[in-house]
Structure formats: C-alpha cells, structure tokens
Write a structure and sequence with these properties.
Elements: E1 2-12, E2 18-28, E3 32-36, H1 43-50, E4 58-63, E5 66-67, H2 72-76, E6 79-82, H3 94-104, H4 111-120, H5 136-148, E7 154-158, H6 166-181, E8 185-190, H7 193-199, E9 202-207, E10 210-216, H8 217-224, E11 227-233, E12 250-251, E13 257-262, H9 271-280, E14 285-292, H10 295-307
Parallel strand pairs: 3-8, 3-9, 6-7, 7-8
Antiparallel strand pairs: 1-2, 1-4, 4-5, 9-10, 11-13, 11-14, 12-13
C-alpha cells in the first residue's frame, strides 16, 4: 500500500525556472527508496514540496491519505525530515533539542521515547552536552533524532551522509536498516551511489526536474546491467584480428586485455564461440574474468541519455 502518493507534481519559480516537471510517484509503506540525481536535478525541491516547505505550482501529493497542501497539519504530523544543511541551536543540549521538536508537534513529554531514540542513535552518552561541542557526524545524528521525536511513519533524508566519513556513513546505513525494521518508510537522496546500492529497495533517478524511472534495485540492475568478460592474453597484440570483428571487442592500450560485453539475461552469451574463435586466431589466453556493471554505471548512462 502506498503511504506517499505524488501525482503530476510541478514547481515553477517566479523567474520561469521549472524545478519539477510533472513528477508522479507512489512510495510503499515500509520501503527504502533512494532518489539519485546530479546537483540541481530536483531532489531537494521534491522533498521540500512534499514536506510543505515549498509550495507546488501543480499536481498533488498525499501522505497517509492527507493532502500536503489542503490538509497540511495531518500530513506533516506523519513526516520526519532530516535536511541537507545542519541547522541546529548550537547552545541547546542534545536531549533538550529533541524534546523541543517533539513539543512542536503538540505531543506530551515522553522521556522513555526520547531515551530510546538517543540510545539507538548512539547519542545517549551525549544527551547533556551542548550541540556545539559535537562532531559533524554526531550533529547529523541529532538531526535524525529530532526528525524521529514525534514517531513519524515516513522519514525523508536529504543527503544524510554528506561530509561524513566512511565509517560513520556505514553506521548511518545500519540506522536506516533498523528504522525500516520498525516499519518506518524512508526516502533518501544521495550522491553516494554505493549507499543506494547497499540499502535501497527501489531506485528513482531524477534529472532536470523529471523522474526518469523508478524501479526495484535488483530488477533494474538485471535489466540494464551489462556483463563484461575481460580476457587477459599471454602475449600482447597490437590489434584485434579481423576474423573477430563481429564480436565488437575492445583492446586495452597495452594490448594485453580484450573486453567483451554481453547481455547476462540473453539466451546465449556468445562466450563459448568467442573463446573458440580466439584460439583459431592464434591468441593464447592467460586469464578470464567477468565483471557486472554497477548501479553507478547505469545511473551515469541514464542521466547522460536524458541530457542528450
């Protein structure tokens, strides 16, 4: 069941710039959706419009059945937002900052809930420290704690690991996985494609304000991913024999490796025939290695096509 329903969503600014171009998207309850796109693609604008920070100029969006414009309070009560920029009261203590955000939603104090959030985010030992004394990574954890203070059903994470070191980034992935286990729906934007590859259920690619695709991550990689057979030769060659022209092979600059791309989903890969023909052409093989295209390569290809 879709907890977020976006239909023909548009945003055009006063100067005429169209940041969102008719985005339509359903986000299922309990899933992790990663939105990928280059700078200026519309990721942050989309999240801001759904969360009520930016007014859309066309289309509709609903969260839990509540329209984000006409029924803003009910829709917003279901949402937690972790913005890209770290905007915190530097002189507040960690626990006080989280309590304050909960109060903004009109909810009573719940010390057990605050303690649970802070412990899950490894902030409990820092609960009485002022935010200005925290590292950048810990400040991002405080932003997540504040976003979770009112027990939202949907959590938007806008570049949650920007500027965070690799170790802390992996900690964040674990936090997101734990939130999913608790039934929270998570939508994250990220520049780190390995992040999407590691934790997302579905991938959305946005560019120029338009949603290019939304697809199950594994299905996307199976459908669009190519495999390569990398053939290392015992002796380098200066060119590929003409008898092998039908295979569309590429030769490395050193002449020691031949690369053959094939469709892993196809009925026949052509590898057996290729190896036989390589032998007929007098080429001696030292090693064979297959490589699956990454999500990053698929993303770069999609964005490149949309910009052409």
């Amino acid at each position: 069941m879709a907890i977020v329903e976006i239909r023909d969503f548009e945003k055009t600014y006063a100067g005429g710039f169209q940041a969102l171009k008719g985005v339509t998207l359903d986000i299922e309850e309990g899933e992790i959706l990663a939105l990928l796109g280059p700078n200026g693609a519309g990721k942050t604008t989309l999240i801001s419009a759904v969360c009520g920070l930016v007014s859309p100029t066309g289309g509709t969006a609903k969260i839990g059945g509540h329209d984000v414009v006409s029924d803003y309070r009910a829709a917003r009560s279901l949402v937690g937002l972790v913005p890209q920029e770290i905007a915190l009261d530097q002189f507040s203590k960690v626990a006080d900052a989280v309590r304050f955000t909960r109060g903004l939603f009109g909810l009573p104090r719940d010390e057990a809930h605050i303690e649970d959030i802070l412990k899950k985010l490894s902030l409990w030992d820092k609960r009485n420290e002022r935010i200005l004394a925290l590292s950048g990574g810990m400040k991002r954890r405080v932003l997540i704690a504040k976003a979770l203070s009112h027990s939202p059903r949907v959590l938007f994470l806008d570049e949650p690991t920007a500027g965070v070191d690799v170790e802390l980034r992996r900690d964040m992935w674990e936090i997101v996985a734990d939130l999913k286990k608790d039934g929270v729906t998570i939508i994250l934007t990220t520049h780190y494609i390995e992040e999407a590859e590691a934790i997302a259920d579905r991938i959305g690619v946005i560019n120029g304000g338009a949603l290019l695709l939304v697809e199950n991550k594994d299905a996307l990689m199976a459908r669009m991913g190519k495999k390569e057979l990398q053939i290392t030769l015992r002796e380098p060659v200066t060119s590929i024999p003409k008898t092998l022209a039908s295979y569309a092979l590429t030769l490395s600059e050193e002449g020691e490796m031949i690369t053959y791309s094939f469709d892993a989903q196809g009925e026949a890969t052509g590898i057996t025939a290729l190896i036989a023909d390589l032998s007929k052409a007098g080429l001696k093989l030292a090693d064979l290695h297959t490589k699956q295209s990454s999500l990053e390569e698929i993303f770069v290809g999609l964005v490149g096509e949309s910009a052409a």
